[in-house]
Design brief:
Layout lengths: L1 H7 L9 H8 L4 H6 L4 H21 L4 H6 L12 H19 L4 H9 L6 E3 L16 E3 L9 H22 L5 E6 L2 E8 L2 E5 L1
Length: 202
């Protein structure tokens, strides 16, 4: 279970990566460390600390503050550098671990679905990509949550791409494009312009 939790939290996702939380507590820059191959020894230390803390937490279902502080040369549990790690360990104990234990209900949920009973909805995705909001499993999966898309980053990229398309058309044709089309993933998006207004049909 410890290895599973560490693989789930290896990268930033619904919550910050456990490596990010530990490296920040160590006074290191997470983004700089993970992008430089020469920093493997620091990452090894980070993963060793993560394994020790999560293993201890799961064995006792309790966060031993002194044990956690000892991983950082006695850094106080309440120190500002520990905020993210403190929050993450508490979340693992109170939310992630209990939800992982509920995976045993999947067979019962399948039986309920086959009996035409109601199954509560939940998002799909991969735990190893940090999508912890898919837990607990055994729900009626939907692939797209309109409350979460587009993300701020995706929106900014979309705005930039749209501006580039329009600017290119104005520069080359001295007019807005009459039709646009592209293929993205498994969906075909047909975009048309009506009075310079883009309308997307999925």
């Amino acid at each position: 279970m410890t290895r599973m939790i560490l693989s789930i939290l290896k990268y930033d996702g619904s919550v910050p990566s456990i490596r990010r939380c530990i490296l920040e507590a160590m006074g290191q820059d997470y983004d700089e460390i993970v992008t430089q191959s020469k920093n493997t020894s620091i990452l090894d230390q980070c993963e060793s600390k993560a394994f020790a803390m999560v293993s201890d937490l799961l064995m006792s279902n309790h966060i031993h503050k002194k044990m956690v502080s000892a991983q950082f040369n006695g850094l106080d549990w309440q120190h500002p550098k520990m905020i993210k790690l403190r929050t993450l360990l508490t979340w693992i104990k109170d939310k992630l671990y209990p939800d992982l234990l509920k995976t045993s209900r999947e067979i019962l949920q399948i039986a309920k679905a086959m009996d035409k009973q109601y199954i509560s909805p939940g998002p799909g995705g991969a735990l190893t990509r940090g999508k912890t909001d898919i837990l607990p499993t055994g729900r009626n999966i939907y692939s797209i949550d309109p409350r979460k898309i587009p993300t701020k980053t995706a929106y900014k990229i979309g705005v930039r791409l749209a501006d580039e398309i329009l600017n290119k058309s104005l520069a080359e044709e001295n007019a807005y494009p009459e039709k646009l089309g592209w293929f993205s993933g498994v969906w075909m998006h047909i975009v048309r312009t009506e009075n310079n207004w883009l309308r997307c049909c999925t």
